[in-house]
Prior knowledge:
seven-stranded mixed beta barrel; 3 helices; magnesium; SA1684; nucleoside diphosphate phosphatase activity
Amino acid sequence: MAIPKEGEKVQIHSYKHDGKIHRVWQETTVLKGTKNIIIGANERTLVIESDGRTWLTREPSIVYFHAEHWFNIICMLRDDGVYYYCNMSSPFVYDNKMVKYIDYDLDVKVFPDMSYNLLDEDEYEEHKELMKYPDVIDKILKRNVDKLTGWIKQRRGPFAPDFIDVWTSRYEFHKQLQARN
């Protein structure tokens, strides 16, 4: 399996269970790449929706993908603190400079004080029926919502106190390197 190299630019491709593209982030800088984890960063990157609409992300973000967990985490660095947007998703695959995953609708929004809300339960139920999510996927996702909320409460992974400082510092280093080249 290919592994992205630190400093490499990759795209992020989000799909739906039926195989259709959902959303593409045009450019993310890899800060760490292993067979199990990809940590990246982007800022003011172009996002293309499935219907062709485009928009730019507003703030710098650190993104966290894991090959063994059914969620990914976007850490958005805002003036009033770090907000986290967590997608319940398939584990990522890395292929041809693209990080790919299936988005399963359920999201968890985490605020700087570590309070959180589960979002899009109605969308999940609608798509579960429409796209015929198997029962095994439903069970895996519900277990992973519990795992993710445990991480939030325990301040594990991207929710750990020093995670953001370590990876934003690394991102600044790469931005300076790119500015010199």
